[in-house]
């Protein structure tokens, strides 16, 4: 087992420091792969052969050890991993004395092997998951590419016909807290069927497997709750964090769309006023439509109106008033209440806006035009965030 060979010398040094005696590790052929006396590495430890054959602990005093190749007085114990023998650990010294340490060192060695094997498997799965996610993101629609992606997912135990939604976590994640962030993600989603990987130091993408809801459909509300819980956990690690969630999808093409929706939704969450920590794509249908409007569709008059607005010292306050006016269904009373101002103050500002731009908020068409232009500026990143 490669993990034993990779860890053997570290295990020997840690164990030796722990008990103060010489320790060795062998592979399944009885060959020493780690030893307090490094010159013995590569030699046969004959006492290990009986241990590997029977799975039993063997002690050997000075006389019995002298008849065995590469063996000194002491105790030899089997090392197990996943229910199978992967090597032995030997401790040199008076058998009566070192035997009392044997089970301790064996348990310590097996624990470290399991831990490191788990780490290695996690790294391999992360690499495979990252490659799989990138292939889904850049899926061209070709049938051979689709078959390759499905096979690749199957190889890491993921069935792409299981309903999933893309979840994008966006935050500035320092390398020293990335493990803690990934652990929080692991706890939030069932990673047996979910696929997760860091695409960059600022982005972790998850294809979260969904369970059936009350009516038998995959529950996005359950996913929202998971994401809110995840966000609360991440706030303790990295406060500046938003989460965007795509629509429920099965199959490669639909999962690609869900990923694109999650990315756009996360961008909208970053630029929303006030910032929204978790947004589902269905929460921001209008904003997604606005973000897709090409700038070339600005009319000259509309572009001039936005330039005039930008020149005002209270430009952000005016834009906020326009957003609230539309969100409050053009109600003077509700808008004034939401802005914490008197109705007359609001009407004065509405009239001032008309004088500045030529657009009247009391006109549905004018109000929606201004709302869309401000949204394009906000969600396409042309204005302040």
What does this structure look like?
- This protein is elongated.
- It is of the alpha+beta class and 385 residues long.
- The strands form two sheets. A five-stranded antiparallel sheet has the order 2-1-5-4-3, sandwiched between helices.
- Helices cover 54% and strands 16% of the residues.
- The chain folds into three domains: 2-114, GAF domain (Beta-Lactamase, 2-Layer Sandwich); 138-290, Alpha-Beta Plaits (2-Layer Sandwich), CATH 3.30.70.270; 294-379, PucR C-terminal helix-turn-helix domain (Arc Repressor Mutant, subunit A), CATH 1.10.10.
- Helix 6 (178-188) runs antiparallel to helix 7 (220-237), helix 9 (285-291) packs across helix 14 and helix 11 (315-327) packs across helix 12.
- It starts with a helix and ends in a 6-residue tail after the last helix.
């Amino acid at each position: 087992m490669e993990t034993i060979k990779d860890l053997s010398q570290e295990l020997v040094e840690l164990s030796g420091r722990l008990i103060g005696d010489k320790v060795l590790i062998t592979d399944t052929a009885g060959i020493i792969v780690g030893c307090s006396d490094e010159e013995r590495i590569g030699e046969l430890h004959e006492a290990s052969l009986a241990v590997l054959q029977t799975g039993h602990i063997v002690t050997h005093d000075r006389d019995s050890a002298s008849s065995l190749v590469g063996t000194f007085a002491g105790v030899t114990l089997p090392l197990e991993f996943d229910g199978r023998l992967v090597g032995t650990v030997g401790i040199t010294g008076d058998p009566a004395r070192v035997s009392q340490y044997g089970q301790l060192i064996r348990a310590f060695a097996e624990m470290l092997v399991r831990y490191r094997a788990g780490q290695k498997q996690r790294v391999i799965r992360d690499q495979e998951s990252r490659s799989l996610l990138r292939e889904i993101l850049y899926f061209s629609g070709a049938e051979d590419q689709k078959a390759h992606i499905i096979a690749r997912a199957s190889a890491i135990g993921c069935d792409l016909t299981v309903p999933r939604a893309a979840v994008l976590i966006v935050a500035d994640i320092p390398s020293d807290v990335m493990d803690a962030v990934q652990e929080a993600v692991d706890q939030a989603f069932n990673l047996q069927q979910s696929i997760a990987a860091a695409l960059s130091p600022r982005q972790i993408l998850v294809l979260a497997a969904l369970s059936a809801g009350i009516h038998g459909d995959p529950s996005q509300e359950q996913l929202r709750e998971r994401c809110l819980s995840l966000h609360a956990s991440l706030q303790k690690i990295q406060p500046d964090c938003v989460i965007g969630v795509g629509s429920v999808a099965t199959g490669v093409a639909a999962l690609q769309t869900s990923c694109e929706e999650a990315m756009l939704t996360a961008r909208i969450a970053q630029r929303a006023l006030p910032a929204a920590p978790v947004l589902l794509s269905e929460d921001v249908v209008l904003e997604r439509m606005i973000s897709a409007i090409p700038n070339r569709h600005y009319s000259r008059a509309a572009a001039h109106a936005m330039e005039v607005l930008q020149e005002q010292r209270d430009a952000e306050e005016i834009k906020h008033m326009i957003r609230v006016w539309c969100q409050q269904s053009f109600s003077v009373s509700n808008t004034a209440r939401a802005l914490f101002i008197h109705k007359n103050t609001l009407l004065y500002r509405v009239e001032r806006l008309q004088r500045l731009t030529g657009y009247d908020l009391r006109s549905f068409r004018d109000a929606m035009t201004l709302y869309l232009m401000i949204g394009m500026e906000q969600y396409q990143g042309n204005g302040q965030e």
